[in-house]
Design a protein that fits this description.
By secondary structure, the chain is mainly beta. The chain has one domain (2-274): Jelly Rolls, CATH 2.60.120. Helix content is 4%, strand content 42%. It is built from 2 helices and 23 strands. It has helices spanning 9-12, 17-24, and strands spanning 2-4, 25-26, 34-40, 46-51, 57-58, 74-80, 85-89, 92-96, 101-104, 111-115, 124-130, 138-140, 148-150, 159-165, 176-182, 194-195, 199-206, 214-220, 223-229, 233-237, 244-247, 252-259, 268-269. A 7-stranded mixed β-sheet has the order 1-3-4-11-6-9-12, with no helix packed on it. Strands 2-20-17-22-15-14-13 form a 7-stranded antiparallel β-sheet. It has a 4-stranded antiparallel β-sheet with strand order 5-10-7-8, with no helix packed on it. Strand 13 and strand 14 form a beta hairpin. The longest helix has 8 residues, at 17-24. It is globular and about 55 Å long. It starts with a strand and ends in a 7-residue tail after the last strand.
Length: 276
């Protein structure tokens, strides 16, 4: 597990492209047969990819977190973006088709990740946040989620937002997680943009062709920067930073949030004339 520390917005003004990428971009999320996790000190979110092949994988983070097992004081959200697989929670197995999700409550001791076919492995993307209460585990099937339909072709941001770990779907302490799919011909996400003064956010971009690139914009509204990202890369967005992007083609991304509340609409909108 890699650790990323928090940053003052004034410091970011001085970063070169290389420094910006080192601090906020996660270039490798999925690797067959491996667990790749990042621990950010921004609201202590842990996120990353678990890609089992012919052997099951688990997350062992006891000494790193000062606990006896990973979810002793944490909750977990999972979305599978790869082949068919399953997740075993304290002996109970949950089949995970592509785009299926799972909320796992605090106190679950054993979490095992499996793929049905090693040649087409599952790719489990996870978000985990500190938790103060145990809520029930919930399997989330994307077919049962009614998406929010937003944007339009005229503004190049027609998209469907699927809320997974969200009060409309299941209870959680502070974690929220969902998936946004852009329609063909649309390339902008979250524009007009906003910040979350009371919550941080993590993005994973995927469903992109090898040559497709996302230009992910971040920074304070009056001091913006950008990261050029390719398929299956992730980025950290502190509460003071905007998080919006455009790309050379349409794409899908998973957003995860944690912080002071679980109110999806709690955001500070940024006027277009205030962007710099």
């Amino acid at each position: 597990m890699e650790t990323r520390y928090a940053h003052h917005p004034e410091d970011m003004k001085k970063y070169t492209t290389t420094e910006l990428r080192k601090e906020f971009l996660i270039e490798t999320v999925f690797e067959p047969g491996h667990v790749h996790l990042t621990y950010t000190h921004v609201d202590r979110m842990i996120f990353g990819g678990v890609t089992p092949t012919d052997q099951e994988l688990t997350i062992k983070l006891d000494k790193e977190l000062g606990v006896d097992y990973f979810l002793e004081r944490r909750e977990l959200g999972i979305i599978n973006i790869g082949g068919e697989g399953s997740v075993v929670l304290d002996g109970t197995e949950y089949d995970m088709q592509q785009r299926d999700g799972l909320y796992v409550g605090k106190g679950t001791k054993e979490v095992l990740f499996r793929s049905k076919d090693a040649n087409n492995p599952a790719k489990f993307y996870i978000n985990s946040a500190p938790a103060h209460h145990t809520y029930p585990t919930v399997k989330i099937d994307i077919k049962n989620i009614k998406p929010l339909e937003m944007g339009s072709p005229e503004t190049l941001n027609e998209r469907k937002i699927y809320q997974y770990v969200h009060p409309n779907i299941c209870e959680s302490c502070q974690l929220q997680m969902g998936l946004t799919m852009l329609s063909a011909g649309s390339v902008w996400n979250t524009m007009p943009c906003h910040t979350h003064e009371r919550r941080m956010e993590v993005y994973l971009y995927f469903d992109m062709e090898p040559e497709t690139r996302v230009f992910h914009f971040m920074g304070k509204p009056d001091e913006t920067r950008h990261l050029v990202m390719k398929n299956e890369q992730a980025t950290i967005s502190p509460s003071w930073s905007i998080h919006t992007g455009t790309a050379t083609s349409n794409y899908t991304f998973i957003w995860g949030m944690c912080g002071e509340n679980i109110t999806y609409s709690d955001m500070d909108l940024v006027k277009m004339e205030d962007l710099r």
